[in-house]
Specification:
By secondary structure, the chain is mostly helical. It has 8 helices and no strands.
Length: 235
Amino acid sequence: MSDIILHPKNRFTWALLAFQGGYINVGGLLTVHIFVSHITGFSAHFSTSLIQGELRHSIYFLFVPIFFLIGAFFSSIFTEVRKKSHKPPVYVHILSVLSLIFLIITVLGFFGFFGQFGEPFESLRDFILLSVLAFACGSQNAIFTHYSKSIIRTTHLTGITTDLGIGLAKSIVSKDKNEHYLNRIRIDLIISFIFGSILAAFLFPKLHYLGFLVPAVISLVVGLRLYYTRKHTTI
C-alpha cells in the first residue's frame, strides 16, 4: 500500500483521471448516443439489436467491448513487464498515446470524418469512433486498476461504489485507518467522475468534437505529472 498509487501527492491525480472518465462517458453519449467508459450495457444493445433484426448494429455492439478489452490488454502489458522486472510503473507512455488518440478524434471530427456531431449511432464511422473511445477507456481503466490491485478505477462508478461500500463496513467494524484513507480516495473518484460528467454535458453541445481536446490535455498533463513524481519522490 506504500507505492506511488497511494502516495498522498497523487490524490489529485487520481481524481483528475476519474474526472476525465466521467467527461469521456458523457462525451460519447452526446456524440453517438451511447455511453463509452464502461461496457456493461453493450450486451443489452447487442441482444436487442439482434432480436429486432438489426444485424449490422448487433455486430457493432458485439465488437465494441473487444476494443475495450484490447485497450486494457495494451496498457497492462506495459505495467506487467515492468512489475516482472521489479521496476516502478511508467504511465507517461500510455497516457501520451491516449492524449494523441483524443487529439486525432478532435481533428477528424472537426473536419467531418465522423459526420455530424450528435447524430444517432448508425454508420461505420460511428462504430469507429465508439471503438476508439472504448479502447482509450479500457487503457486508462486497466493501467491503474492493474497496478493498484483494483484500488484506483477511473472510468466507471460500479466497481468503485462497491469498493466504497465494503470499505465503509471495514472502517466501521475494524477501525482500519488505512481503509479510512482508501475510502477518502474512493469518494474523491466518485465526486470527480460526476463533475467531469457535468462539465462534458455543458461543453460538448457548444464545442462538439473540439470537446475532446479536454481529455487530450488531461491525459498528457497526468502522464507528465506522474513521471515527474516518480523521478522526484521516494515512496
